[in-house]
């Protein structure tokens, strides 16, 4: 399938991209660890089948020092020994926050309690916003058939700054 439209070439799309990038910069400056942010973005993007976002966040994670082993195991994080308890809590929140329609309760009290064990209020605010933002980005890219493979680390931030 070919991309349906290049949102970035429209005035509206360009303005939206700039706002998304601005929100991304707020999250990057938050105390939530960059590697955790990338793992969460990868997991939500896997669930949503977003090739563009998987490409972006795998490359950004690698640029931030993430290992190939951990990147490969994100999809099966429950069955892997390479993630911390804090990362597991964040990944659980990412999954439950992404699959809201699949569970009547949304994010479970158990997952929320684990998140609160490992993250302070500032980090929780960033984590919740990140889950919402990556899901919105996934939906935009999937709807228009934005393909993965051409992203280069830092590309989105550079384009948004220009």
UniProtKB/TrEMBL annotation:
GO molecular function per UniProt: peroxiredoxin activity
UniProt KW keywords: Oxidoreductase, Peroxidase
TM stretches of this protein: none
InterPro entries: AhpD-like, AhpD_core, CMD-like
Residue ranges the record marks as coiled coil: none
Record keyword Iron-sulfur present: no
Statement: the UniProt record of this protein carries the keyword Oxidoreductase: yes
A Pfam family of this chain: CMD
Ranges of residues in domain Carboxymuconolactone decarboxylase-like: 17-96
Name by which UniProt lists this protein: Alkylhydroperoxidase
Record organism: Amycolatopsis vancoresmycina DSM 44592
Lineage: Bacteria, Bacillati, Actinomycetota, Actinomycetes, Pseudonocardiales
């Amino acid at each position: 399938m070919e991309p349906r439209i290049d949102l970035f070439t429209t005035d509206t799309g360009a303005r939206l991209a700039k706002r998304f990038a601005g929100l991304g910069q707020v999250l990057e400056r938050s105390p939530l660890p960059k590697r955790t942010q990338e793992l969460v973005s990868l997991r939500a993007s896997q669930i949503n089948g977003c090739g563009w976002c998987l490409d972006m966040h795998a490359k950004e994670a690698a640029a931030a020092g993430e290992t190939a082993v951990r990147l490969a195991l994100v999809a099966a994080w429950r069955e892997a020994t390479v993630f911390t308890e804090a990362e597991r809590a964040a990944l659980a929140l990412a999954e439950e926050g992404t699959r809201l329609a699949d569970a009547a309760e949304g994010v479970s009290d158990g997952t929320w309690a684990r998140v609160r064990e490992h993250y302070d209020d500032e980090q929780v605010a960033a984590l919740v916003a990140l889950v919402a933002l990556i899901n919105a980005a996934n939906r935009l890219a999937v709807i228009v058939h934005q393909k993965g493979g051409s992203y280069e680390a830092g590309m989105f931030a550079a384009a948004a700054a220009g």
